[in-house]
Amino acid sequence: MANIHKTAIIGEGAVLGKNVEIGPYSIIGSEVVIGDNTIIESHVVIDGITIIGKNNKIYSYASIGKESQDLKYKGEPTKTIIGDNNKIREFVTIHRGTDDKWETVIGNNNLLMVYVHVAHDVIVGDNCILANNVTLAGHVTVGDFAIIGGLTPVHQFCNIGAHSMTGGGSLIVQDVPPYILAEGSRAVARGLNSVGLSRRGFSKEDLSILKKVYRLIFRSKMLLKDALAEIEETYGENEYVKNFVEFIKNSSRGIIK
């Protein structure tokens, strides 16, 4: 049975899993689905077609599933989808998708700190940390294990690569490739995220290869297309290098330098 405070408002049709807790004055819309063992603290608003998985904790004053701030949005039946084992802290806002992707998605095991904003059609992978006041504009994608420092705005349509880390207060207007450190008032590449990669079990051999790849892309005077060609010829069998090269080739906004 769900544990619902007497002051909470649960819309007719909402589906609550086993052992769900709903705190005082929270409002759950009629099209919301909440998985087992998820805790909703006080004064939380969850609206729209929103599907939330198991074992999440959503703290006070969060707003999830409201319509986007995109002026082109005309009330289409878009979704907000949140996986399992996430912590969504106070005053976080997560907006539903538009008719671009039709959904905004948060994966599993993520920490969204105070005042994080996740705009429409954003995709956040698994095991990410978004520090206080991170602002993800519409259509942003964040790869698995990425860490975004506090007070960081990310421009529309940017991609943040897996296992990357960005410093606090960095303005991100282009794609951040996987595995690197980025920082600056307009973010630039500062090096390989060696400490983070080591903690996640990357071998010394893989780290050595990725450092060489990083230098070719960011520190050599080669044209990007020539650097990529050399990387593919020399290190192209390495799975992490494949991911790195594919990310850069698929970048529509260009990568930070």
UniProtKB/TrEMBL annotation:
<keyword id="KW-0677">Repeat</keyword>
<dbReference type="InterPro" id="IPR010137">
    <property type="entry name" value="Lipid_A_LpxA"/>
</dbReference>
<dbReference type="InterPro" id="IPR037157">
    <property type="entry name" value="Acetyltransf_C_sf"/>
</dbReference>
<keyword id="KW-0441">Lipid A biosynthesis</keyword>
<dbReference type="GO" id="GO:0008780">
    <property type="term" value="F:acyl-[acyl-carrier-protein]-UDP-N-acetylglucosamine O-acyltransferase activity"/>
</dbReference>
<comment type="function">
    <text>Involved in the biosynthesis of lipid A, a phosphorylated glycolipid that anchors the lipopolysaccharide to the outer membrane of the cell.</text>
</comment>
<comment type="similarity">
    <text>Belongs to the transferase hexapeptide repeat family. LpxA subfamily.</text>
</comment>
<dbReference type="InterPro" id="IPR011004">
    <property type="entry name" value="Trimer_LpxA-like_sf"/>
</dbReference>
<keyword id="KW-0443">Lipid metabolism</keyword>
<protein>
    <recommendedName>
        <fullName>Acyl-[acyl-carrier-protein]--UDP-N-acetylglucosamine O-acyltransferase</fullName>
        <ecNumber>2.3.1.129</ecNumber>
    </recommendedName>
</protein>
<keyword id="KW-0963">Cytoplasm</keyword>
<keyword id="KW-0012">Acyltransferase</keyword>
<dbReference type="InterPro" id="IPR029098">
    <property type="entry name" value="Acetyltransf_C"/>
</dbReference>
<dbReference type="Pfam" id="PF00132">
    <property type="entry name" value="Hexapep"/>
</dbReference>
<feature type="domain" description="UDP N-acetylglucosamine O-acyltransferase C-terminal">
    <location>
        <begin position="175"/>
        <end position="256"/>
    </location>
</feature>
<dbReference type="Pfam" id="PF13720">
    <property type="entry name" value="Acetyltransf_11"/>
</dbReference>
<comment type="pathway">
    <text>Glycolipid biosynthesis; lipid IV(A) biosynthesis; lipid IV(A) from (3R)-3-hydroxytetradecanoyl-[acyl-carrier-protein] and UDP-N-acetyl-alpha-D-glucosamine: step 1/6.</text>
</comment>
<comment type="subunit">
    <text>Homotrimer.</text>
</comment>
<keyword id="KW-0444">Lipid biosynthesis</keyword>
<dbReference type="InterPro" id="IPR001451">
    <property type="entry name" value="Hexapep"/>
</dbReference>
<keyword id="KW-0808">Transferase</keyword>
